Amino acid sequence: MRIISGKYKGRRISPPKNLPVRPTTDMSKEALFNIINNHFNFSGLKVLDLFAGTGNISYEFASRGSAPIVSVDGDFGCTRFIKQTAAAFDFDITPIKNDVFKFLEKHSSAYDFIFADPPYGMDQAQFDKIVTTVFDNGLLEEDGMMVIEHSKYTPLRHLPNFSFEKSYGGSFFSFFEFESAVTDDDDDDAEEE
User: Concatenated DSSP letters for 133-164?
Assistant: First the structure.
């Protein structure tokens, strides 16, 4: 696993082999961050990384100057590794060992970017719940974006605030954003003309 861009571009990170993870591939990660780069300035971006695993995505944001970053995973080995790696690189990453769904239900901070990489075998209702809970609880800033990584067997286009989808190899990324609405002011201007 390596960091593909930013201050620590090219640095390799070697997580323990016994972690229960499926890291996002370098090819998929590079394509994903190219898309994100077209929407955001990474510096100071407030990020929430759900099902963080090895911290692969968190390190990528941190290397580009994003902070603060919160990384949530239910596995103690994963959060311990993220804590050790963040300290070694002096990244502003806070690992939290918690069930992601419990965390989302009780958490109240809003983020500019939320990334979720649940186990591909998780059932459809749980994937749906990630999206609905994030938006219902106000965890995404109004100009923010959420991305969920999933397999082709888990469609997410039917969910509210779905924006677009990209696929790379066997991985799919679904993007969610608040829909921009026409304001009342725009209607008033049209009537005056």
Answer: HHHHTT-EEEEEEEEEEE-TTS--TTSTTEEE
SS3 38: coil
Compare 53 and 180 and report the one with higher pLDDT.
53
- Output Rg (C-alpha) for the chain, integer angstroms: 17
How crowded is the C-beta side of 142, counted as CA atoms within 13 Å? 2
pLDDT of residue 180: 58
Alpha-carbon gap, residue 15 to 137, rounded angstroms: 33
Within the chain, what is the greatest distance between any pair of CA atoms? 67
Structure tokens at 6: 């930013």
Domains and CATH numbers, the chain: 26-192 (3.40.50.150)
At how many degrees (to 10) do helices 26-37 and 56-63 cross? 40
Angle at the Cα of 95 from the Cα atoms of 36 and 169, rounded to 5 degrees: 40
Could you tell me the pTM of the whole model? 0.90
Burial of 83 (0-12, 13-18, 19+ CB in 10 A): middle
